[in-house]
Write a structure and sequence with these properties.
Oligomer: single chain
Number of helices: 14
Radius of gyration: 25 Å
Structural class: mainly alpha
Helix content: over 70%
Mean pLDDT: 78
Low-confidence stretches: 278-292
């Protein structure tokens, strides 16, 4: 999940940074000194970043409190509709005050998954998860279709030296970003980011689709714009095909290289499919000792001690934002899901295909005997 989260945050930061630079280069900034422009750009960047993050976080916390104190367990459709409203609200608010809607909705999703998700009924939890995963899959597929069409839809001009230096500086910049910041984060984390995880984040965290979309909206003369769009497209294709294609072999190599030092063995095969199991290929479970959920479970059982934000989150924030369920509510939720499963099983059992397969299996067993 670290790889996916880091790449999504990169996309959001890229949008904010590009918007800030474009605004700094406007005609109204022509009479301002370079130093003043730089300070104004930095101030604008951090203002947009933290302002958007604050809007998303506040909306998510509000949604958690609303669903904590309003019981919608008996009406999953209304609960689902309310969640859709809360999801769109931070984007609309941020764009309305000229901040970053993408950044706001990113932080809103992070906080919602940590608090609001647990206040939903089991049916709504499943519905929201599958709906968001489907939308994410469709949107990501559409982006790469657009990238493929972009190869033949726009005039290109290749500057080989710019392409090579762009790739070198991008990889160097990511190395100077990933490794020092990961080591700094480990100072405040109970769940450490391993060196293998850092390498995977550095190697496979580049996505590029947002960069290509931003390059299409740059206002330069025609020849300069062709060079920038072509260079961005080549870099995106390289990171997608070469680095993306090499992610799985790299993960298997790093896992086999460190398998003798791990205390526990991997329970399941690594997969890069976000649709079959969201984040399973990049889950820290494969490359670290304990996940955050396991640390919290261990803390609840008295086997370990949480530190830093995880301690305060477990002791104070979660009890405030997440409702406590009674045993009857847990039984009702489990019974509701069981009824849905039983209905599905009955519908399948009544179909002719299942009956034919069952008869075939019976015949095969009789022949073998």
């Amino acid at each position: 999940m670290l790889v996916f989260g880091e790449s999504i945050l990169n996309d959001a930061v890229a949008i904010v940074l590009t918007t800030t630079i474009i605004e700094s280069g406007g005609p109204e900034m022509a009479d301002i000194g370079v130093l003043s422009q730089m300070m104004g750009g930095i101030t604008r960047f951090f203002g947009v970043f933290f302002g958007s993050a604050a809007i998303g976080t506040l909306v998510a916390m509000t949604s958690s409190l609303v669903l904590k104190h309003i019981d919608l367990y008996t009406n999953p459709s209304l609960e689902f509709a309310l969640m859709l409203c809360f999801i769109y609200t931070p984007y609309a608010l941020a764009e309305g005050v000229h901040l970053s809607g993408i950044m706001a909705i990113l932080f809103c999703g992070v906080v919602m998954s940590h608090y609001t998700h647990y206040n939903l009924s089991p049916v709504t939890q499943i519905t929201m998860q599958q709906t968001m995963r489907t939308l994410a899959f469709v949107c990501e597929t559409s982006i790469f279709i657009y990238l493929g069409l972009g190869i033949f839809s726009f005039p290109h001009r290749v500057e080989l030296s710019l392409v090579v230096w762009s790739l070198v500086l991008i990889l160097l910049g990511r190395a100077l970003n990933i490794f020092p910041l990961s080591l700094l984060c480990n100072k405040f984390r109970s769940h450490q980011i391993t060196k293998r995880m850092m390498v995977i984040m550095w190697f496979s965290g580049l996505r590029g689709a947002i960069a290509y979309a931003l390059s299409l909206h740059l206002e330069f003369d025609e020849e300069t714009r062709k060079v920038l769009v072509t260079t961005t497209l080549i870099v995106v294709l390289f990171t997608t095909i070469v680095l993306g294609g090499g992610t799985m072999p790299l993960m298997k190599y790093l896992e086999s290289k460190g398998s003798g030092r791990n205390r526990r063995r991997r329970k399941k095969d690594i997969t890069l499919s976000k649709t079959s199991e969201f984040g399973s290929a990049i889950d820290s479970e494969h490359l670290s000792e304990l996940t955050e959920e396991e640390l919290e479970q261990s803390f609840a059982e008295g086997r370990t001690h949480l530190q830093g934000f995880m301690y305060w989150d477990y002791k104070f924030l979660r009890p405030f934002f997440v409702r406590k369920f009674s045993q009857q509510e847990l039984k009702d939720g489990k019974s509701h899901v069981t009824k849905l499963t039983d209905k599905w099983f009955q519908d399948i059992q009544s179909s002719p295909l299942v009956s034919d397969l069952s008869d075939m299996d019976i015949d095969l067993n009789i022949d073998q005997d």
